[in-house]
Amino acid sequence: MKLGIDLFSLRFNDWDPFQHLEYARRIGVDVVHFSELNPARPLDTGYLAELKQTADHLGLQIEVGMRSICPTSTSFDPSAGSAAEQLARMIEIAAQVGSPAVRCFLGSNADRRTALPLAGHIAATVETCRAVRHLALDHGVKIAIENHAGDMQGRELAALIEQAGPDYVGACIDAGNPLWVAESPFTTLEHLAPYVVMSHVRDTAVSPHPSGAMAQWVAMGDGSVDIAAWSHRYRELCPNTNFTLEIITTLPPKVLNYLDPDFWSVYPDTPAHEFARFLALVHTGRPYTEPVLTANWGDLTPELRAALALEQQRQLEKSVRYCREELGI
Known about the structure:
The chain has helices at residues 17-27, 45-58, 83-97, 118-131, 133-139, 154-164, 185-192, 227-237, 272-284, 302-325, and strands spanning 3-6, 31-34, 61-68, 101-105, 142-146, 169-174, 196-200, 203-209, 212-218, 243-245, 254-256. By secondary structure, it is α/β, with parallel strands linked by helices. It has a single domain (3-204, 218-248, 293-325), classed as TIM Barrel (Alpha-Beta Barrel), CATH 3.20.20.150.
């Protein structure tokens, strides 16, 4: 299984794609995942050919992605064209650079609290996928929908994929996002494993909090969810995929206030046995207490942004070493 990095892990390092490729080769990974290419940006055939040629020369595989493909989502940006137009463009880009899939997502946890129920957002996402089905099949490129920022639990994303059609739609499984929806990453993996074509892997420290639980994303090996066991199981269930790291350590901990009845208003169908599995992680977990630089990403001074850029490199390189030395990837 190839080890990769999602460039969102380095979001405050203001490098161009070629500098990212050079960095990836320098730290010893095999895959570079451009998870948020802008389909509206003028990426001509010559530029893409140069990008692929550089990656091939460095011995790297490219994966590509974009943001929301759900036109009803609070995360969707219509300025770049319709959802189907944006996705079609990214499928063509994926084919040109040799990416087996296009990573994308529905939205975020905010879409569970809109006037339109989540089921409506799911239906709109399925419609976008169906609009480009023939293009995806013709190019041999799958649509890889991520469980993203609290938008869907594992069983909900699995149902979306089945509804759209697993012959051309799959999953980009994120190991850190399940904690935001009170779900164990092991539960998410079991629901999504048959459909996984891409991954975003990171560790999480989860622990009890007066309002329920607290979750903080950390470097690989620094968490309390047994990421080693999860990684072993991932390799068993999804052997034909890449192990792509998305390390996000510069955000502060997130409180999951599941003791507040309002929390459950947007999770009415969560099975008790799945929540119990999450609770087991909470009550055997511990907070992360080692020094790490975190900040509110929405209000950064140039000095803080530069410091975060270095912190991202440090935590990503630490995670790569863990995957090589401890997990044997």
